Amino acid sequence: MIRFADSMKRCYHTAETSIALIVSTAINFIYPPTCLLCDQEITALGHGFCESCLSKLKPAVLLECPRCGAPVGPYTDLASGCGQCRRESFAFDGVIRLGVYDGQMRLASLRAKASGGGSLARGLARLLVDQKRATFHTSGFDLVVPIPEHWTRRFVHPHYAAETISRQIARSLNVRWNRKILIKSRRTPKQATSPTPLRRQQQQGSFAVARKGPIAGKAILLVDDILTTGSTADAAAKTLKKAGAAHVIVAVIAVSPLRK
C-alpha cells in the first residue's frame, strides 16, 4: 500500500511538472522572455539575462579573498586575509560573492534593491549559486538567514533585496530558510550616508536572535545584497555566534572594491 502511494505521488509530480513545462512554453511563445537587466528579448530564460549582460555580470577569472571577498592579485598571501581585511576583526568566517560593486554589477545591484526589483534579485541569486555552487556545497550549510531590516522600514519598502536573494539561494541549494530567527532590534541610519567608523558603532547591538534553538551548533549562510565595510554582516554574525551558531559565512551579490 505504501509503495502504491509512493508510486502515485511520483506520477502526480511528473504530471504536474509536465503541465507546468507546457504552460511555461506556451507563455514564452506568446510573451517571449526578456533580460531582467536590459529588457532585450532572450531565447531561453535560464538565469534571466541576455548574453551581453551575463558576460558583464559573471565575475572575471581573478582571485578573491575568501575572508572578505575583495579582488586580489595572483601573488597575494591570503593566509590571514588580504590587504583590505588583514587588520579587521570580523565575526563571520568568510564571504561568498558574485562580483564587485562596479559597472554593470553596480547597476544591477541598485535595481535589485528598488521597488519592483524582486525578479532581478532572484536572477542574481540564481547566478551567484551557479557560479559558486562548489563553494556553497563544500561549506555544507544547515540554514540560510537574511540580514534583517527593521520592521518600521518594511512599511515604506515592502520589497527587501536581502530577503528575496536569500530565499532564492535557499531554494537553489535545497537548504532550510528562516527569516524570523535573526531580527533587527534597533533601527539604524542608512549605512551609505555614514563613514566607516560610525557604521561599525551604529550596527553593534542592533541585532537579536528571536529563537536560539534552531541555530545552536549550526553552520549559517548569512545573506545580504551588498557588502561595503562589513560592519552590518559583522554585527549580525556576532549575534548569531553568541546565540550558539558554530560557523557563519556571508553571501552577497557584490562587494565594494575599496572599503577604506
Summarize it.
By secondary structure, the chain is α/β, with parallel strands linked by helices. It has helices at 2-30, 51-57, 103-113, 118-131, 133-139, 151-154, 161-173, 196-203, 231-242, and strands spanning 63-64, 71-72, 95-100, 143-146, 182-184, 207-209, 219-223, 226-227, 247-255. Residues 17-30 have low confidence and may be disordered.
Q: Strands, helices and their partners?
A:
Blueprint: H1 2-30, H2 51-57, E1 63-64, E2 71-72, E3 95-100, H3 103-113, H4 118-131, H5 133-139, E4 143-146, H6 151-154, H7 161-173, E5 182-184, H8 196-203, E6 207-209, E7 219-223, E8 226-227, H9 231-242, E9 247-255
Parallel strand pairs: 3-9, 4-7, 7-9, 8-9
Antiparallel strand pairs: 1-2, 5-6
Describe the protein in words.
The chain folds into two domains: 1-31; 62-255, Rossmann fold (3-Layer(aba) Sandwich). A hairpin with a 6-residue loop joins strand 1 (63-64) and strand 2 (71-72). Residues 17-30 have low confidence and may be disordered. It has nine helices and nine strands. It is of the alpha/beta class and 260 residues long.
* Mean pLDDT across residues: 83
Number of strands: 9
Q: What is the fold named in CATH at topology level of the largest domain?
A: Rossmann fold
**C-alpha geometry:** globular
- Written as H for each helix and E for each strand, in order along the chain, the element string is HHEEEHHHEHHEHEEEHE
Q: What is the count of distinct domains?
A: 2
Low-pLDDT regions: 17-30
Quickly count the helices. Answer: 9
- What is the end-to-end distance? 65 Å
Radius of gyration: 20 Å
CATH architecture descriptor of the largest domain: 3-Layer(aba) Sandwich
Largest sheet, described in full? 5 strands, parallel
Estimate percent helicity.
40-55%
Q: From the helix content, strand content and strand pairing, which structural class follows?
A: alpha/beta
**Percentage of residues in strands:** 5-15%
Q: For the record, what CATH class of the largest domain applies? A: Alpha Beta
